[in-house]
Design goal:
Length: 243
């Protein structure tokens, strides 16, 4: 083996190989075993430090109730009966973390339904909305945190509000993004205070959002965009550990 590696001086190396064969073989064997033992030790240490993160999984259900309010700009609030709205999602919580009772929740947009504002669900200044006027609410994002111990809720919410008057008029959607919270939400014009989850899962979620102008001069003028809007929702949230 030495003769092949050092081909420039074969006579000398062959002589060294005959005079001290045991010394060279032991040296090579010792270095190889040391490296292998060191690599095995590092591998064992890394393996012992990497532990899979285990989580508790919860099934979360969300339902909207009556006696809600929606407000925009400086207009008086709409009285809104959102009863019948619902959605389901999945919550996760790290196992063994008893000091943190928060679960992270993500709702499935295919299951989330919020009733539209119509003459049957909404009143303005004590009167039902005019016939054919409809505001559809199309959720695009609903996720956040529930604290199982304190009852605090903070959900990031994004939805499109689509105004229409029968088949005569349909405005571009208004994009509304806010945090629906059981605490206080405050903007420059609007503010509201929520209520935390009680023993049966009831809560009040509020959120102030900025509404930007859209490509529609009628809506921009009527709603005085840009402006703020306020959502004030009564809801029931339930969570059950599934694993």
């Amino acid at each position: 083996m030495d003769c092949k590696i050092n081909t420039s001086s074969p006579p000398i190396l062959c002589k060294l190989h005959r005079t001290k064969p045991n010394f060279r073989i032991k040296t090579i064997a010792f270095s190889s075993n040391s490296a292998a033992n060191q690599q095995e030790s590092i591998s064992t240490t890394i393996h012992s430090q990497i532990q899979p993160v285990q989580t508790d999984v919860y099934a979360v259900n969300f339902k909207t109730l009556g006696a809600c309010k929606l407000g925009i700009s400086a207009y008086p609030d709409f009285e809104y009966n959102a009863e019948g709205g619902s959605g389901s999602g999945t919550g996760t919580k790290t196992k063994g973390n008893d000091l943190n009772e928060e679960i992270s929740v993500c709702f499935d947009m295919e299951t989330l339904y919020i009733p539209p504002l119509t003459g049957g669900t909404t009143k303005f200044l004590g009167l039902p909305l005019p016939p054919f006027l409809k505001i559809d609410i199309v959720p695009e994002l609903f996720q956040g945190i529930i604290n199982l111990e304190s009852g605090q809720v903070d959900f990031e919410f994004m939805a499109k509000f689509c105004f229409s008057v029968g088949s005569i008029y349909k405005a571009p959607p208004l994009l509304v993004r806010t945090v629906l919270t059981s605490e206080e939400s405050r903007g420059r014009m609007r503010s509201g205070r929520g209520e935390r989850l009680d023993g049966i899962g009831k809560c009040r979620l509020v959120g102030v959002a900025t509404v930007d102008p859209i490509d529609d001069i009628i809506m921009n003028s009527f709603l005085r965009l840009p402006t703020e809007c306020l959502a004030n929702l009564n809801a029931v949230i339930s969570s059950v550990k599934s694993s």
